[in-house]
Amino acid sequence: MNIVVTILIILHLIGMAYLFGSFLVGIKDTVKGQGRIVRGMLDGALLQLITGIALVGIYSAHLVPDEEVNNAGIGVKFIIAVAIYVLALVFRKRTVAPSWVLWLIGGLTLVNIVLGVTSAMVG
User: What are the boundaries of each domain within the chain?
Assistant: First the structure.
C-alpha cells in the first residue's frame, strides 16, 4: 500500500505544480487584463481533487499504519480545491477571464499549498 500512497502523493504534487504553474505563467496577461483560464488549471485542479480524495480514503481506512486524518483540515482543503475547479470550469470558455477570477484561483491555490505544508509539518 505504501507504493500506492507514494504514487498518489507524487501525482498530487504534480497536480499542484501544474495548477500553480499555469497561474504563474499567465500573471503578465492577467495584470494587463487579458488573462484566461488555461487547460493546466483545470487538469491540475482535477488531479488534485482525485488524488486527494484517494489519499484521504486510504488514510481513513487505516490501510497505512500510524497515519491519522485531520478531517477539519482536509475539509477546508477540499472546499478550496472544489472552488478552484468550479471557477476554472465556469470561466474556461471565455476569451478573456475576469482578472479577479484568475487572482482568486492563484490565491486559493497558494492557501491550499500553505495548508498542506503546515499540516504535514504539524502532523
Answer: 2-122
